[in-house]
Amino acid sequence: MSESDPYLLGYRHAEQDRLERQADELANESEWLFDQIGVRAGWRVIEIGCGPRGCLGLLSRRVSWEGRARFLARTPHGCWDPSTIKRDLAVGGLTGSPQITTVAARSRAESARVPAIAYCQGTPLRNEIEARNASLLGEATDIAPEAVAQRFGRGAVDPKIQAHIVTIET
Hints:
The chain has about 170 residues and is an alpha+beta fold. The chain is built from six helices and four strands; from the N terminus they run αβαβαβαααβ. The chain has helices spanning about 15-35, 55-65, 80-90, 115-120, 125-135, 135-150, and strands spanning about 45, 70, 100-105, 160-165. The model is unreliable at about 1-10 and about 70-75 (pLDDT under 50).
């Protein structure tokens, strides 16, 4: 990790750019698939594994204010309860026995601004902001560090973070 790269996991601008180009290049195909599925106003949709832009913006426009398009229910990432994950898998038709491994870590950053930028511009929360008013992305990013600081303190932040790794045989 270089001095100019404050992200613990080594965020790379080149990869971010590639993923954004990919989303642009696949937008027409994604729209076609949504046409085939029949996604329309009022639907509730969820996109999992959508990267920095993915399809959440496309889905948000289709379901309009009458519906809901979410990334894992809401950012911050909402799949936190293993029993809920197991239930949702069963409701979705996956009948195998899921194996869930929880990985706990620390999410260290030199200031509250680092995670604020990460959430506002590097997660599907960006899609939600841009779907409602793209011109407000900068303002949202400027406001967010205060919310992080109120929760985790001024200066360097060091909150807990965890992920559930879910595998299921079908």
